[in-house]
């Protein structure tokens, strides 16, 4: 089956050279306005050391010597207040320019570096993720509660918080394009404090969420959930479904008559024939192979397949594969860092499509 032009370019490592040259200039400009690390001051050519030691370098060396030799003696002698004053002075000298230049503070790293790097692969690539609960359920719920209702994550407590990272999308509005997808790293958690003032965190989900437009359309919905095993009190193991309780009167519980599949997954559907249409013997084998390595859940609704992978992504598809945070210090190798970013993003895209092709092999079609 022929791949789309986008997939071919991705496989061949082809990128837009005009956009690359523009991005390279932006990256060099950003490096020129970023704060320099204090450790850069210690790089000297000792063949001409007198001319190369700057006043700032002397100051930093002096502060380091002060911290290493003078401060401990002051502490041991009990001069705590004077020691504190010296520490404050030293830190203020070291980090007085830590906020960077006005150009650095105003530089929109996300818009000028991160998103253009994605468009090297295709103009329809962009940052973002549509947190659309209608892809999961039809009820008026928040996205987090819709994930619970669709049995994609464990039930959450009230006032829980969510955090998204590395959100990317490709041509999502074009529902007929089976190459289209959305991906995000996602964490769903609840923070609380015990009687002793110690802070704790209950994590309900910490992993990645994928959405694909598939080559088929499902009536109603189909949900496939990985199960855990738990030791019984009197020996042996039992299946444990950690998601929203399944009520037979609300949905149809699917029995594939495959004992291994039943041990690893719980499946429910609006219509049983729609579930069987997806769960072919080949697909069951694929899901069992994936289950050996990953804990995941699938929700099919219409022609959208949503997959949650807990704790880790698929191969290179990690939550931090696309870093959107602005680097604090200037890069010592702007070209090398940019090339590394491009390689990481391409690996991410390739691994997303490898995962998608397993779950929708007929979706590898030309545009």
Describe the 3D structure:
The chain has 367 residues and is of the alpha+beta class. The chain is built from twelve helices and nine strands. The strands form two sheets. Strands 1, 2, 3, 4, 7, 8 and 9 form a seven-stranded antiparallel sheet that branches. A hairpin with a 5-residue loop joins strand 5 and strand 6. The chain starts with a helix and ends in an 8-residue tail after the last helix.
Can you tag this structure with a few keywords?
single chain; 367 residues; alpha+beta; 7-stranded antiparallel sheet; two-stranded antiparallel ribbon
Task: Briefly characterize the structure.
This protein is of the alpha+beta class. It has helices spanning 5-12, 17-33, 49-52, 55-76, 80-95, 102-106, 109-119, 143-149, 259-264, 272-278, 281-291, 334-359; strands at 125-127, 161-170, 181-193, 199-226, 228-231, 237-240, 252-253, 265-269, 296-310.
């Amino acid at each position: 089956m022929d791949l789309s032009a986008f997939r071919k370019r991705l496989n061949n490592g082809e990128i837009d050279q005009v956009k690359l040259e523009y991005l390279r200039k932006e990256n060099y400009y950003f490096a020129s306005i970023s704060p320099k690390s204090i450790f850069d001051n210690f790089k000297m050519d000792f063949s001409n050391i007198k001319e190369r030691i700057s006043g700032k370098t002397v100051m930093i060396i002096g502060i380091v010597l002060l911290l290493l030799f003078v401060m401990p003696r002051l502490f041991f002698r009990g001069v705590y207040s004077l020691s504190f004053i010296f520490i404050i002075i030293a830190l203020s000298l070291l980090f007085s320019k830590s906020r960077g230049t006005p150009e650095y503070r105003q530089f929109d790293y996300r818009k000028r570096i991160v998103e253009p790097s994605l468009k090297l692969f295709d103009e329809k690539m962009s940052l973002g993720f549509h947190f659309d609960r209608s892809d999961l359920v039809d009820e008026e719920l928040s996205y987090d509660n819709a994930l619970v209702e669709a049995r994609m994550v464990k039930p959450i407590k009230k006032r829980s918080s969510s955090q998204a990272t590395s959100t990317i999308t490709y041509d999502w509005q074009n529902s007929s394009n089976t190459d289209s997808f959305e991906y995000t790293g996602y964490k769903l958690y609840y923070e609380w404090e015990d009687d002793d003032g110690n802070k704790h965190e209950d994590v309900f989900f910490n992993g990645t969420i994928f959405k694909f437009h598939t080559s088929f359309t499902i009536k109603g919905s189909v949900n496939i959930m990985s199960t855990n095993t738990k030791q019984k009190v009197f020996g042996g193991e039992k299946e444990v479904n950690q998601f929203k309780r399944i009520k037979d009167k609300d949905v149809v519980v699917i029995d594939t008559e495959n004992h291994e599949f039943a041990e690893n997954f719980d499946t429910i559907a609006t219509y049983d024939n729609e579930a069987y249409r997806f769960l072919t013997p080949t697909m069951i084998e694929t899901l069992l192979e994936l289950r050996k390595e990953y804990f995941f859940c699938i929700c099919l609704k219409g022609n959208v397949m949503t997959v949650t992978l807990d704790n880790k992504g698929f191969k290179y598809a990690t939550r931090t594969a696309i870093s959107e945070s602005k680097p604090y210090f200037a890069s010592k190798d702007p070209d090398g860092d940019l090339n590394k970013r491009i390689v990481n993003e391409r690996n991410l895209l390739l691994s997303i499509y490898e995962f998608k092709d397993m779950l929708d092999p007929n979706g590898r079609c030309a545009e």
